Amino acid sequence: DAGVIQSPRHEVTEMGQEVTLRCKPISGHNSLFWYRQTMMRGLELLIYFNNNVPIDDSGMPEDRFSAKMPNASFSTLKIQPSEPRDSAVYFCASSLSNSGGTDTQYFGPGTRLTVL
Amino acid sequence: QKEVEQDPGPLSVPEGAIVSLNCTYSNSAFQYFMWYRQYSRKGPELLMYTYSSGNKEDGRFTAQVDKSSKYISLFIRDSQPSDSATYLCAMTLGSNFGNEKLTFGTGTRLTIIP
């Protein structure tokens, strides 16, 4: 299995530009998570989907951030307009969730975003 | 105050030493406690998890949970250079942590010196 695939691996952009991060979960997984990791705040959950439906977006910092999951094999996280404080590593994770299960979340390699 | 506190380190120890990594938390409702290992430029991977209070051992790794003190630990015996990584603690309110929010500590960067 290829694992969770994220693209791009690195993104450098200028303040005000739109940024789109992409994620392909592990085939057959039905939950998908977007996290952001910074030195100061650590790893924080932004939003997660179950069966393509957003379940909890309380971690999305503000309206500049949006996430979609149009089908079971693809998700995007968009930042518009981007700001320097958005610079971080963004991780996507997926899992196979079932009632009473304890399956783990499998993380992708991350996208390192730098906003100048 | 963050819900989960973890000393960021860095922590450097000689090969073969016993390593102790710790987290404290404030939410007494947390039920499952996990340790993730993250190598440089990689995503976190689950090392082990523990339910409620007690110990769990997996090879050279032992996880301890003390719910009365809201304190969890990870011990690494006979540490190896390949153990050099950032270790993150994480917690959940329920058991279905494939489908619920993980609350992470900030991570402790560990280096094992050959």
Return the structural class of chain B.
Answer: mainly beta
Task: Work out the number of β strands of chain B.
Answer: 11
Q: H/E series of chain B, N to C? A: EEEEEEEEEEE
Separation, N- and C-terminal Cα atoms of chain B: 37 Å
Structural class by sheet pairing and helices of chain A: mainly beta
Number of helices of chain A: 0
Strand content of chain A: over 45%
The poorly predicted ranges of chain A are: none
Distance between the termini of chain A: 36 Å
State the total count of DSSP E strands of chain A: 11
Query: Helical stretch count of chain B?
Result: 0
Oligomer status: heterodimer
Following the backbone from N to C, one meets helices and strands of chain A in this order, namely EEEEEEEEEEE
Shape of chain B: globular
Average pLDDT figure of chain B: 92
Overall mean pLDDT score of chain A? 92
Overview of the molecule:
The complex is a heterodimer of chains A (116) and B (114). By secondary structure, chain A is mainly beta. In chain A, strands 2, 4, 5, 6, 9, 10 and 11 form a seven-stranded mixed β-sheet that branches. The mean pLDDT of chain A is 92. Chain B has 114 residues and is mainly beta. Helix content of chain B is 0%, strand content 54%. Chain B is built from no helices and eleven strands. Chain B starts with a strand and ends with a strand. Chains A and B meet through β5, β9 and β10 of A and β5 and β10 of B.
Secondary-structure blueprint of this entry?
The complex is a heterodimer of chains A (116) and B (114).
Chain A: E1 5-7, E2 10-13, E3 19-24, E4 31-38, E5 42-50, E6 53-56, E7 65-71, E8 74-79, E9 88-95, E10 106-107, E11 111-115
Parallel strand pairs in A: 2-11
Antiparallel strand pairs in A: 1-3, 3-8, 4-5, 4-9, 5-6, 7-8, 9-10, 9-11
Chain B: E1 4-6, E2 11-14, E3 19-25, E4 32-38, E5 45-51, E6 54-58, E7 61-66, E8 71-76, E9 85-92, E10 103-104, E11 108-113
Parallel strand pairs in B: 2-11
Antiparallel strand pairs in B: 1-3, 3-8, 4-5, 4-9, 6-7, 7-8, 9-10, 9-11
